[in-house]
Amino acid sequence: MSEMTARPVPYIPALRGLYDDLAGWSYPVMRFFTGLFLVPHGAQKLFGAFGGEGIGATAAFFVKDGIEPALFFAYVVACTEFFGGICLALGFLTRPAAIAVMIEMAVAVIVVHLPHGFFWTKLGCEYPLLWGLLAFGIFCRGGGPRSIDNLIGREF
Predict the structure, then answer these.
(1) Cβ distance 55 to 44 under 8 Å?
(2) What are the domain boundaries of the chain?
């Protein structure tokens, strides 16, 4: 076995089987919950659900930050989070959904949050940067074996 393919010996060897059994679920769980957790953010912006104020308030926020045409971009962001989140969770059109989330979060980091620093508690870029990095990882990997993309045998 070469050095590049050697696996480290577990500190508790009896757990190797458990780790091997769980390994195939780590990526689908990450992809599913990344998408699932985006959906309510989109629902807040689109429908005013979960204490959100709807598309008008989202557009007003964009106007304040100089993002124009505000209503158009409010719909783009809300749909990216809501429908893109559903797609990520299901692993359907996974890469296009992931790249849309990556672009959205890059804009959010640069335009809105970076001036506030890093930490989310001060409205910094930490949270949208994390979302963007998760989307990047999903973009790189695609839907994976437990996805609709895989089930239908097609992906971008």
Answers:
(1) no
(2) 26-143
CA dihedral 138, 143, 147, 153 (to 10 degrees): 170
Alpha carbon separation from 33 to 30, 56, 150 (Å, rounded): 5, 28, 18
pLDDT, tens only, 81-102: 999 999 999 999 999 999 999 9
Q: Can you give the pTM of this predicted structure?
A: 0.90
Report, in this order, helix, strand and coil percent for the chain, each rounded to 5. Answer: 75, 0, 25
100 contacts: CB under 8 Å, gap ≥ 6? 80, 84
Using the Cα atoms of residue 119, residue 125, residue 131 and residue 136 in order, give the sign of their dihedral: negative
Measure the CA–CA gap between 67 and 45, rounded to whole angstroms. 16
At residue 8, φ and ψ (nearest 5 deg) are -65, 150
Q: What does the alpha-carbon distance between residue 150 and residue 140 come to, in Å, rounded to a whole number?
A: 15
